Inverse folding.
């Protein structure tokens, strides 16, 4: 495999991993904050770019052909010693390569600390710990030659990088604390109220993100099944075929969606972005089951089941395109399944009712 192909594969894997990791985090943030503002959206876009950059920083440049194995650097002060040594050859720190590298390692992780604080609401210590954990993962990846993908390490495992990266995350968390404290000044002094769901406009963006969340859940279940199969084969010696693993993961994903739809008329992705269902009146229990079955089979449930069929790819494409058309063109951005089931989406956001309003309502 030449260097160009390796680079394309590495970037593709990084983008896919970034997508699968960020979507659940965005969902958690969405539900925690009760909505999705433009500022938070831009924050998550920035997080996406950050993690792709970190992925590239970890792997590249990839070795092309024979290369020299790199030994670990266990002394965290080696980088400082390099700065002092090279400073004797330079009149300015701005031309000192070792200093610039050290500063870059600090600056590189400042966004991580800030985003951990601003988007996930983590404290300074937790944000710093996230920075240390990610830095350690990077160094271990380099130490092991990308976990055995290469014969030996082609980049240095440097304990000094652990120190500088963690310092950057700490500084970013402090900046995030100052910024968020200013933005929410006075919020901590308010008496806590009840969380209530307030109806809001059903937007196209919310519908599309619900669809993305459903597809991401499907992908995560398949990845989890594949990892489980690898563990069974590698650790316990159990022979698990790829086709069996794929089929089982699809069945599990379908059942998870079925539980969600039959319980409340909405998919897991819709639950994630706070979409509720306003269902048409049905005649008895069986009428409700029939409508929700249509909702399931002509949505993500049917899309999942079609993947079990050898020739289901074309029908998946047709179903996906039809769902997108309905999302864009139907009233209230209903999906195909919702339209057939006679239900309508009800978008909500979670807000905190003022404590005095809660007390007043309880005494009425």
């Amino acid at each position: 495999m030449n260097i160009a192909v390796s680079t394309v594969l590495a970037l593709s894997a990084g983008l896919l991993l970034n997508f699968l990791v960020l979507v659940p985090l965005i969902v958690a943030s969405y539900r925690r904050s009760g909505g999705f503002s433009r500022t938070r959206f831009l924050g998550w876009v920035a997080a996406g770019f950050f993690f792709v950059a970190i992925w590239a920083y970890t792997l590249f440049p990839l070795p092309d052909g024979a290369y020299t194995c790199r030994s670990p650097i266990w002394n965290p002060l080696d980088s400082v010693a390099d700065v002092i040594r090279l400073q004797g050859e330079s009149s300015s720190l701005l031309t000192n390569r070792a200093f610039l590298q050290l500063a870059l390692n600090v600056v590189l992780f400042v966004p991580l600390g800030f985003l951990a604080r601003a988007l996930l609401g983590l404290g300074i210590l937790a944000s710093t710990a996230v920075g240390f954990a990610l830095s350690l993962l990077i160094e271990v990846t380099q130490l092991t030659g990308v976990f055995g993908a290469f014969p030996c390490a082609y980049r240095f495992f440097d304990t000094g990088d652990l120190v500088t990266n963690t310092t950057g995350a700490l500084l970013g968390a402090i900046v995030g604390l100052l910024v968020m404290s200013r933005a929410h000044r006075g919020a901590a002094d308010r008496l806590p109220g009840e969380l209530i769901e307030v109806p809001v406009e059903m937007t196209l963006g919310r519908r599309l993100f619900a669809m993305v969340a459903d597809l991401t859940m499907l992908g995560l279940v398949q990845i989890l099944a594949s990892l489980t199969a690898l563990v069974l084969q590698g650790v316990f010696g159990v022979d698990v075929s790829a086709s069996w693993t794929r089929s089982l993961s699809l069945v599990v994903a379908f059942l998870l969606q079925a539980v969600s739809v039959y319980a409340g008329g909405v998919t897991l992705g819709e639950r994630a972005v706070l979409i509720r269902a306003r269902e048409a009146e049905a005649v008895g229990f069986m009428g409700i089951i029939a409508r929700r079955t249509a909702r399931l089979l002509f949505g993500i449930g049917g899309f999942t089941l079609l993947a079990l069929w050898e020739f289901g790819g074309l029908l998946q494409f047709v179903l996906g395109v039809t769902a997108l058309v309905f999302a864009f063109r139907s009233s209230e951005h209903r999906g195909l399944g919702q339209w057939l089931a006679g239900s309508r989406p009800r978008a909500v956001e979670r807000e905190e009712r003022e404590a005095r309003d809660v007390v007043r309502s309880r005494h009425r």
